[in-house]
Amino acid sequence: MTASGNWLSDVMFWVDGVASGAAGGGAAAGGGGALGGSGGGAPSGSQGFSLTREEAERALEEFRAIHDDLVELEYDARRLLELRPPAGDPASVRLNEAFAGGSSGPGVFGYGAGHVKKEIAYFSELVERLEKALGYVAEADESAGHQVGQVGGIETGESKGHYE
């Protein structure tokens, strides 16, 4: 694990043999793994997952769907924290505190909501890493830079100053 405590920051994805790059720079030493088994081949001595482009795109689609489901679940989990006891009797109040939280701590639903937030953060990073490995981010940046350059005349050497 890294200083941030996120084990995923040490893991790389290889899509058709091209690495995504770890968040802190290079990959840590360790055994390489393969998700799907038919990937592009990770360099030895690095830890991560080697995928074909098709496998990576399917995984990305699944991870995005899981992320979206978790975001919906987070809303429901927050609403559970708003529960109030049906009556002011001690048994109802204590049971409500055990579930929704109170003076004794966050309660079962509070811990659950916190766990869902951590899962959302994990899947957000996982989606971001796979998009990077697939080149979606770089391709979009390059395409935008190319289009802006064409519009401004930078790539042709003339200054248009406006879009024609």
Strand content: 5-15%
Topology pattern, helix = H, strand = E: EEEEHHHH
Q: Order of strands side by side in the largest beta sheet?
A: 2-1-4-3
Q: State the helical fraction.
A: 40-55%
Overall tally of domains: 1
Q: Which structural category do the helix and sheet elements fall into?
A: alpha/beta
- As residue ranges, the low-confidence spans are 22-40
Radius of gyration: 23 Å
How many strands appear in the DSSP assignment?
4
Largest sheet: 4 strands, mixed
Distance between the termini: 52 Å
Overall morphology: elongated
Number of continuous helical runs:
4
Mean pLDDT, all residues: 75
Description of the structure:
By secondary structure, the chain is an alpha/beta fold. It has one domain (12-137). Helices cover 51% and strands 7% of the residues. The chain has helices spanning 53-80, 90-100, 107-134, 136-152, and strands spanning 12-15, 18-19, 33-34, 48-51. The protein has a four-stranded mixed sheet with strand order 2-1-4-3. The model is unreliable at 22-40 (pLDDT under 50).
Descriptors:
alpha/beta, 4 helices, 4 strands, PE family protein
Topology, pairings included?
Blueprint: E1 12-15, E2 18-19, E3 33-34, E4 48-51, H1 53-80, H2 90-100, H3 107-134, H4 136-152
Parallel strand pairs: 1-4, 3-4
Antiparallel strand pairs: 1-2
Helix pairs in contact: 1-3, 2-3
Sum this structure up briefly:
This protein has 164 residues and is α/β, with parallel strands linked by helices.
